[in-house]
Specification:
There is one protein chain. The protein has 2 domains: 26-111, Rossmann fold (3-Layer(aba) Sandwich), CATH 3.40.50.10860; 137-260, NAD(P)-binding Rossmann-like Domain (Rossmann fold). Helices cover 40% and strands 16% of the residues. It contains 10 helices and 11 strands. α1 (8-23) runs parallel beside α10 (259-279) and α2 (41-56) crosses α10 (259-279). The longest helix has 21 residues, at 259-279. The structure holds guanine (GUN). Guanine binds at residues 92-95, 117, 138-139, 167, 263.
């Protein structure tokens, strides 16, 4: 058996076009503010892509690119102004932040109704409690959307998530639990991880270890979602050894072109959701 690709690039494009078509008839435009501190090259490219995608979808989007030496107080001041500006519906601060800034304090300062990353304690808690007002983090939301393209019903499936980050692993566990999956989260301290991943109907790798997941980690016919973005000798690869597992899985996301494009599409959807809720 050769796994069927889940084409995140195409699915994300369709979502962005759908959003653009819907926004084409609106009088007002959702407005996203992206804040980047410092000169991390990958973050800058990523944030410029977000801005381009937002504009193409018919939204407004400012990229606030602040110098590395920006103080925590200056950043809090900017967030306060964005929170208080009624024309702005979505606020996101690119992570990671420079070491001298307390990331938790910054995230907690974002107004939950504008928190389109879904990182504030209010949105994380609402997701956990299955409260429909939750703004769900873009990457987990994108993964769920991809899974729904190949599984009509997720109920009862065993989903194993490798990685327990606040950005992917933890919110994804809540999201899949809310879909009635049986969810197991494994991490760097898990004893004998293979024993667990081999039971997964859905295996999600979000651990940041290049090509860690091999054939003997995978159940025959599993769906594999690869969240990793790593480089080996300059070449992009995921946390899954794609060539090794390809014959064993039923569905798999490629890297690049799998989960990555979905994150931007879902961030735009979240901005539209925030806009609609704020306009009520
Ligand atoms: N850094 C890596 N992924 C993300 C994300 O989804 N949002 C933000 N703000 N920063 C990130």
């Amino acid at each position: 058996m050769s796994a069927q690709l889940i084409n995140g690039k195409e699915i994300a494009l369709a979502l962005r076009e759908e959003l653009a078509a819907e926004l084409a008839f609106k009088k007002y435009r959702p407005y996203l503010a992206v804040v980047l501190v410092g000169n991390d090259e990958a973050s800058l490219i990523y944030d410029r892509n977000k801005q381009k995608a937002a504009l193409a979808a018919g939204m407004d989007c400012d990229l606030h690119h602040l110098p590395e030496e920006t103080t925590e107080d200056d950043l809090l001041d900017l967030i306060g102004r964005l929170n208080g500006d009624d024309n702005i519906h979505g606020v996101m601060v690119q992570l990671p932040l420079p070491k001298h800034i307390n990331g938790r304090r910054i995230i907690e300062a974002i107004c939950p109704e504008k928190d389109v990353d879904g990182f504030t304690p209010q949105n994380a808690g609402r997701l956990l409690l299955k409260d429909e007002r939750a703004i769900v983090s873009a990457t987990p939301a994108g993964i769920l959307h991809l899974l729904k393209t190949v599984h009509q019903n997720l109920s009862g499936l065993h989903a194993v998530i490798i990685g327990r980050s606040n950005i992917v692993g933890k919110p994804l566990a809540s999201l899949l639990l809310n879909q009635d999956c049986t969810v197991t989260v494994i991490h760097s301290k898990t004893v004998n991880p293979k024993e667990i991943t081999r039971q997964a109907d859905i295996l999600i790798a979000a651990c940041g270890c290049p090509k860690m997941v091999k054939k003997d980690w995978v159940k025959e016919g599993a769906t594999i979602i690869d969240v990793g973005i790593n480089r080996i000798d300059g070449k992009l690869c995921g946390d899954v050894d794609f060539d090794d597992v390809c014959d064993k899985a039923a569905f798999i996301t490629p890297v690049p072109g799998g989960v990555g494009p979905m994150t931007i599409a879902m961030l735009l959807r979240n901005t539209y959701q925030a806009y609609l809720a704020l306009k009520k």
